[in-house]
Amino acid sequence: MQNSRGGAGQPVWTRALVGWHIVFWVLLGMTLALSFLGHLGAVRQSVYVGTVVVLAAAYQFIGLPAIRSRRAFPSYTYRLLLIASLITLIGIYPQSVFLMFIASAQIWLLCEDLREGIGLSLLLVLGVGAAQLWSAGWGWSAFWQILPWMLVSLVVSLLFGIWIEKVITQSQQRAELIEQLESARDELAEAHHSAGVMAERERMAREIHDTLAQGMTSIVMLAQAGAAELSQGGDPAGRLAAIEQTARENLAEARALVAAFTPVALSEATLTEVLRRQAERFAAETGVDVQVSLDLPDDEVAALPQAQQVVLLRSAQEALANVRKHAAATQVLITLGLSSNRVWIEIRDDGSGFSPGVASGGFGLNAMRGRVEESGGTVQIESTPGHGTRVQVLIPAVQEDV
């Protein structure tokens, strides 16, 4: 049973070791004390005491290390000494037979398999039976009296050993199951950690794309326009002021990304005000006429959860960025509304349009979809080449508790 219990089964024995210690020493002490009441004579008493000392030393210095290490040689040595000691003790003082209880348990607890346990149990019962028969004078009458006890002892020992084997096997299976569960838990925790890291990276990428990248694009376009005015002898002071303002806003957004993910603009103004500022700046940078329309009161917009306002704002920024890059539009209408318990924002332009089924959809649109879907919403895009584009974002409307 060593191979089947070597690792997982060891804690079972370790937990019971204190109890087995106590039982062994109590039984051995009781046997020694009772022997002095048996009037064995000086020589037999001395042999008896010496055998008890040998058995105690064998248990302490061979048996216990074998139990802990599960090594074969000490295990066999101790069990053979145990059987020899019991034969001697019972031969001298037959009332010592109750030591078979602890001896049988120790034999089975150190066995490697059933065959070994059965063989050593049989050796123990035969040896003890022979010792009792010797003590009774080797008569047939004594033999027939001892035989039933020997058979009962053998059966009890075998049943006890099989029970111990099943208990240890079940304990090993439970230990292996616990180990598998702990391993699965660790793997699941690692998977959750990896998923969290990936989600955080994706979120950071969206935030950078929707804020810093678009702000840098505005700075580049303003710088190009200012350079063109300067080459024509104009005054680029207005463009420089716009570049400074955009750079300051980008710096504030970068600091906000480090501290949290709430846009600086929304921490200082309502969503409606921020959308109108975005429209004004976009119109100043591109010359496109941008209008903001509300289909719900401003106080209801302000009552929306901060996370939903962020989604609506980022969606509008991404749509405007696409208008800047691809649409060549002259007019843009941003509409914010509420219907059927869903808040929506729509960005419509009169630009060149595209075929949604053919377009690859860059990182911006994919990031927009990912952000909206995380909020339980949907993105609808309608566009036809030459007839503009309509982007609508719908998310469940949840009012913040005030």
TrEMBL record:
Cofactor: [4Fe-4S] cluster
Main subcellular location of this protein, as a coarse class: cytoplasm
InterPro entries per record: HATPase_C_sf, HATPase_dom, His_kinase_dom, Sensor_HK_TwoCompSys, Sig_transdc_His_kin-like_C, Sig_transdc_His_kin_sub3_dim/P, Sig_transdc_His_kinase_ChrS
Subcellular location: Cytoplasm
Histidine kinase domain ranges (all copies): 203-399
Transmembrane regions listed in the UniProt entry: 20-40, 47-68, 80-111, 118-140, 146-164
Keywords linked to the UniProt accession: 4Fe-4S, ATP-binding, Coiled coil, Cytoplasm, Iron, Iron-sulfur, Kinase, Membrane, Metal-binding, Nucleotide-binding, Phosphoprotein, Transferase, Transmembrane, Transmembrane helix, Two-component regulatory system
Keyword Phosphoprotein: yes
Catalytic activity: ATP + protein L-histidine = ADP + protein N-phospho-L-histidine
Gene3D superfamilies to which the protein is assigned, alphabetical: 1.20.5.1930, Histidine kinase-like ATPase, C-terminal domain (3.30.565.10)
Pfam families: HATPase_c (PF02518), HisKA_3 (PF07730)
GO MF annotation list: kinase activity
General function of this protein: Member of the two-component regulatory system NreB/NreC involved in the control of dissimilatory nitrate/nitrite reduction in response to oxygen. NreB functions as a direct oxygen sensor histidine kinase which is autophosphorylated, in the absence of oxygen, probably at the conserved histidine residue, and transfers its phosphate group probably to a conserved aspartate residue of NreC. NreB/NreC activates the expression of the nitrate (narGHJI) and nitrite (nir) reductase operons, as well as the putative nitrate transporter gene narT.
Classification via PANTHER family: NITRATE/NITRITE SENSOR PROTEIN NARX-RELATED, NITRATE_NITRITE SENSOR PROTEIN NARQ
Name this protein carries in UniProt: Oxygen sensor histidine kinase NreB
